[in-house]
Specification:
Layout (H helix, E strand, L loop, with lengths): L1 H16 L10 H8 L3 E15 L4 E4 L4 E11 L3 E4 L1 H9 L2 H23 L8 H18 L1 E11 L5 E3 L1 E6 L18 E5 L20 E6 L2 H4 L13 E12 L5 E5 L11 E3 L5 E7 L14 E5 H8 L10 H14 L3 H14 L4 H15 L8 H27 L2 E2 L1 H9 L5 E4 L3 H6 L2 E2 L4 E2 L2 H5 L15 E4 L6 H12 L5 E4 L2 H7 L5 E2 L5 H8 L8 E4 L4 E3 L8 E7 L2 E7 L2 E8 L4 E2 L1 H6 L6 E4 L3 E7 H10 L1 H27 L1
Parallel strand pairs: 15-20, 16-18, 16-19, 19-20
Antiparallel strand pairs: 1-2, 1-3, 1-5, 3-4, 4-8, 5-6, 7-8, 9-10, 9-12, 10-11, 11-14, 12-13, 13-14, 17-21, 22-29, 23-28, 24-27, 24-29, 25-26, 25-28
């Protein structure tokens, strides 16, 4: 133990004096600030000059243009951008549906509206008249129509600079035909744009694949913000940021990989970069999920094009991914700012502002740095050195405690770590080593667990699928305090040659508290299974009743108690016209008596033990806590109450018929 304590002392001292390994990692705020200047608003605009004959002579109009907005981002500081193909597709390929929309607008503007004005009507005032006019003029107008479209693609930077863009490479969006099948030209939904030469920010593209749980920050220009009536119009120049995580990996209708994320997105986010905590692009927003009923966006199920596919798309284009002189200056200035070296930050941020003037994030950060130079935060008392001294004094006392704790927990494993082993295909063997009384009392066990009683283990009667020479992980679990039974059996197994034996920290209770799946040893109703998963049996009062003994009588006060049948059966009885009838017979795992708690009224029926019965007593405070914090249990209780209401209504209907 002396050597262990000395090692602990050295480790702790090194940790106090050395700079932590992750100290260079970016904060979320710094990562987002690094990336935001590179995000831009993409606008595809298709105007047209149209001539036609509505039946009363030639008419020429220029209808309101078709406009599509989305998000793009600089990938190369010389002027290359990436966005979704479907953002620029209307202006790039002029699909027939866009031309048709312009024609319909032209008919309304050149034919329908003049006729309405001639009749003294405003648009929308008499829809039936408006439709009749539109039907009358549509055929001759369409037959005679000459259209000259004027497509354009523009890029709006956050400093207000607007640039014309050209499409340099295009992989069409995924399209579906009338039968819901992918069209032959469906592609990766990516477009590479080029603006005039200049100095621009640029984002790097991550070289690693995204993993489940990775944090993502989606930059974009959602339409709901651009059109918000309560916001200043300047919001159209600065990207919004939403946060979430990687929640799945899927494939689209033609088998291309997409990444699912729960980061919120909306129309207008298309083409936007989803960056990780290192400010590198993990994916490109490509499509969201719509409700099948109303077409509204269903958040939590949005999809990204993986970074590796973006890199593949850019191959052979000459794009230098992430290269930009602006990036170098901006990142250094942010580094000084977040190190709280505000004087250096002011100098460097001013230089960045000269490189690319009036970027909102640069201006805002520069203003904050200048304010902190003028009004520096108070220098804190040198608590780190005081803490170091106190720590060095205390470490001798606590080192032994830490060593003992480590020694005790060196074989323990958390429920989440067990799930991790299962997901990696290591198939750990779960062994139920509860004492015989604990095993017989609880109706739950871990899925696929093998039963090994402590008594059998002590006698050497061990029948496990894993052999002692294998490296397969064996996890023992129990319900005893501090996993004492699991620790004893694990020690026996190691003595028998099983090398990789672990103890489930928290036992069965820790597993259920983590809301991981369990199995019932015998059939239990769903409500009973949920209750057992959320109760610690050792903390719950139990009561036993003899055969035919009353548990409570009709008209009794509920005493803030509900009951779960742990063993036996209970009859629910009620008096009708002076005679007592059996309404229902409840069995193991069923809940009763809760109705009086909800209604705060006397018992509406009696409960009697059919045979020997053992009940778990659920106090109202405990039941209320469970319902507020365990939604699945709440759903089961609501279902049960609904069934009771339906049964009562049916019984009343039958009585009315009689």
């Amino acid at each position: 133990m002396g050597a262990t304590v000395r090692r602990a002392l050295l480790i702790l001292c090194a940790g106090l004096l050395a700079r932590p390994e992750g100290a260079a990692a970016l904060s979320i705020q710094e990562a987002i600030l690094r990336a935001k200047p590179a995000a831009v608003l993409i606008t595809s605009r298709i105007g047209a000059d149209i001539s036609m004959n509505c039946g009363k002579g030639p008419v020429s109009v220029s209808p309101a243009p078709f406009v599509e907005t989305g998000t793009g981002w600089f990938v190369d500081g010389r002027g290359y951008l990436v966005t979704n193909a479907h953002v620029v597709d209307p202006a790039h390929r002029l699909p027939p549906w866009v031309i048709h929309e312009l024609k319909k607008k032209a008919i309304d503007e050149g034919c329908v509206n003049p006729e309405l004005r001639a009749q003294g009507l405003a648009a929308g005032q008499r829809p039936e008249v408006e439709d009749r006019i539109r039907r009358a003029v549509s055929d001759p107008a369409m037959a005679s129509m000459q259209i000259t479209p004027t497509p354009s693609i523009t890029v709006l930077l956050s400093n207000g600079t607007k640039l014309a863009a050209q499409v340099k490479k295009f992989s069409p969006p995924l399209g579906l035909d009338g039968n819901g099948q992918p069209t032959k030209d469906s592609g990766r939904d990516l477009a590479l744009l080029r603006v005039q030469d200049g100095l621009y920010p640029a984002l790097n593209i991550s070289g690693r694949d995204a993993q489940i749980g990775d944090g993502v920050h989606v930059l974009g220009f959602p339409g709901v913000i651009l059109s918000h009536e309560l916001l200043n119009k300047s919001v159209s120049m600065e990207a919004s940021v939403t946060n979430g995580g990687i929640s799945g990996f899927k494939q689209d209708a033609i088998g291309q990989d997409v990444i699912q994320t729960d980061a919120p997105a909306a129309h207008g986010n298309s083409g936007g970069p989803a960056i990780g905590d290192d400010a590198a692009v993990l994916g490109v927003m490509t499509f969201v999920s719509l409700s099948p009923s109303g077409g509204a966006i269903v958040q939590g199920f949005n999809f990204l094009i993986p970074a590796r596919d973006v890199r593949k798309f850019l191959e052979g284009t000459g794009v230098q991914v992430g290269e930009s002189r602006f990036n170098t200056a901006w990142n250094e200035a942010l580094g000084a700012f977040f190190r709280e070296d505000y004087r250096t930050a002011v100098t460097q941020l001013a230089a960045v502002d000269r490189l690319m003037p009036n970027l909102p994030d640069v201006k805002r950060t520069l203003g904050e740095a200048e304010d902190r130079v003028k009004h520096p935060p108070p220098r804190p008392f040198p608590w780190p050195w005081v803490a170091l001294a106190v720590s060095l004094v205390s470490v001798g006392t606590y080192g032994g405690m830490f060593g003992q704790r480590w020694w005790k927990n060196r074989f323990r494993i958390l429920p989440a770590q067990v799930i991790g082993l299962i997901e990696r295909g290591m198939s750990p063997v779960l062994v139920d080593v509860r004492t015989q009384s604990d095993f017989e009392t609880s109706p739950l066990k871990l899925p696929g667990a093998i039963r090994l009683s402590p008594e059998d283990a002590a006698r050497g009667l061990i029948n496990l699928e894993a052999d002692g020479a294998s490296k397969q992980v064996i996890v023992t679990y129990c319900t005893s305090p501090e996993e004492q039974t699991s620790a004893a059996v694990a020690q026996v197994l190691r003595q028998k040659g099983f090398r990789n034996v672990r103890i489930l920290k928290g036992g069965l209770g820790g597993w259920t508290n983590a809301r991981l799946p369990v199995e019932a040893k015998s059939h239990l109703p769903s409500i009973g299974l949920e209750i057992y998963k959320n109760l610690t049996l050792s903390d719950v009062e139990r009561r036993s009743f003899a055969p035919r003994q009353l548990i409570f009588s009709e008209g009794d006060e509920p005493r803030a108690e509900a009951y779960v049948i742990h063993g036996g059966a209970v009859e629910i009885r009620k008096r009708f016209d002076g005679a007592e009838r059996v309404l229902n017979t409840l069995h193991e795992g069923e809940l009763f008596g809760e109705l009086g708690l909800f209604r705060k009224s006397p018992r509406s029926a009696s409960a009697m033990a059919v045979g020997d019965v053992e009940l778990l007593i659920i106090k109202w405070e405990r039941l209320e806590w469970l319902m507020r914090n365990r939604p699945q249990l709440t759903m089961e209780i609501v279902k049960r109450l609904a069934e009771m209401v339906v049964a009562t209504d049916r019984e009343r209907s039958e009585q009315t018929v009689r």
